[in-house]
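TODO from last week: model CBS domain-containing protein.
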Amino acid sequence: MRSLKVSDVMWNHIEPIRCGTPLTRVVKTLLANHVTGLPVVDEHRKVLGFVSEQDCIHSLLVSSYHCEGEPTVDDVMFRSPLTVGPEMAVIDLAQNLGAGKPKVYPVVDHDRLIGVVTRTAILAELAKSGCGIELPKFVEAD
């Protein structure tokens, strides 16, 4: 487990959110990918922020109530997200996971987004590596 790296458990097939994306499209992307949040990037995949389900819920409630125009991801994203590197040990990241910490971490290499790692992926790896827990074969990290 000590040698398992973030790059071994990250997802690199999810397309990040681009600045200017309407919030309704962000919500569809989150739901389609079964994730609680995604990084927001520029055209060079530099991480500029992070948007979560909670950010979307609050903003859509407010904009619906006030009959305002559709918000964009720029209106709600958190602009200083925590990121991790691909070489970070999974065990080190797992030890840093605590209450209130992100559920999804952007994985950045040379200032460029290369994937995301989720709490679920880390939990699945911890369970596989030693607790004797048998996971269903269909479980996929989100």
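Done. The two ends are 20 Å apart (CA to CA).
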